[in-house]
Structures are given as C-alpha cells and as structure tokens.
Amino acid sequence: MRFARLGGAAVLGLLVAGCSTSGNQQAATSTSGEQRVTQAELQAFCPRISLREGASFFSTYEKGGNGDSNRVVYQASISDVTRDCRRDNGNITINVAAAGRVVPGPKFRNGTITMPIRVVVMQGDKILSSNLHKQAVAMNNSQSATQFLFSGTSVSVPEASARQVQIFIGFDEGPQKG
C-alpha cells in the first residue's frame, strides 16, 4: 500500500513536470491568437511607487477659512498607489494610478471638484519628470464620501537605469499664496 502511494505520487509528479514550458523567451502566440507573457516579462523590474510624505491628504476651505474645520468644502485622501510597466526596445514605460476618496465638508455644494495630483519620477536626487494633473470628481451627495481613481500619463525611462528610479505621487496645491 505504501509503495502504491509513492508510485502514484511519482507518476503525478512526472505528469505535472511534462506540462511545464521551458526555454523559449520569445512571446508565444496561443491558439486563440493572443500574445502570451514570457518569463522574462514576468520577472522584469518595475520601479517602486510611493505616496509622497505629507501629500496623501488635501483639504479645501471656503475663502478666508483656511484651517477652520467649520469652513471645510471637502477633504480628499489617497489610500493606495500602483504602477504598471511595459518593456519596449530598451525602455520601460510606466503608467501610474492612485485610488482615494473625497469627503464633503460643512460648506460643500454638489458639483464637480478638481484636485491637484502630482507625479514625480526621480533618479537619485535628479528629477526626471514632474507632472501636475487635475483630477475631476463629480460629487452629488453632500452626505457621503465619493471614491476616485486617478490614472496618470505614461513615463518612459531607459531599462538600464530603471533600478535607480523612484516614483512619487500625491496631492500638490502648488506654492502657498499670501
């Protein structure tokens, strides 16, 4: 009985091993005509993305009410960030995304709000790109929060230097007025 179990396990192991693919690093085309992902693509490096320190929250106040919680129009927060990388001809193209929510304040009025979201790509201390985006969010209920999804523009970096690249994302009101 014991030998039968061991023999069955060995046969199962050989069957599973026979089903694996090997060696070909080129993109394979399935019978349905779709491109399959190669092992090299699965193992490819994609630069880290981080929520910039101090830039995960954003509050808007009615005119002259900065800092007064009774005069908040809305507050927004970014709760999650991610990126997607594609390799092509020695470059990596990075698409960034952030998810968050907007909470109406006491002075909120229904409508569309616009939040400033900045994406910065750095290599060490050097800024490779810095783009400010305007994220519009339609809010039609002053009693509940609204979720949003930001998807930024693509950034391309040479694959050879991708391991030294860091991506930051967060709210950016720009220079303080006054």
Folded structure, characterized:
This protein has 178 residues and is mainly beta. The protein has two helices and nine strands, in the order H-H-E-E-E-E-E-E-E-E-E. It has helices at residues 2-19, 39-42; strands at residues 48-51, 57-61, 72-88, 91-104, 111-123, 126-139, 146-151, 155-158, 165-171. The strands form two sheets. Strands 2, 3, 4, 7 and 8 form a five-stranded antiparallel β-sheet that branches. The chain starts with a helix and ends in a 7-residue tail after the last strand.
Question: How would the global form be characterised?
Answer: elongated
Overall average residue pLDDT:
80
Estimated helix fraction: 10-25%
**Largest β-sheet summary:** 5 strands, antiparallel
User: Could you tell me the radius of gyration in angstroms?
Assistant: 24 Å
The total beta strand count reads 9
Poorly predicted runs of 5 or more residues? 1-28
Binned strand content: over 45%
How widely separated are the two ends? 85 Å
The number of distinct helices, counting runs of at least 4 residues, comes to 2
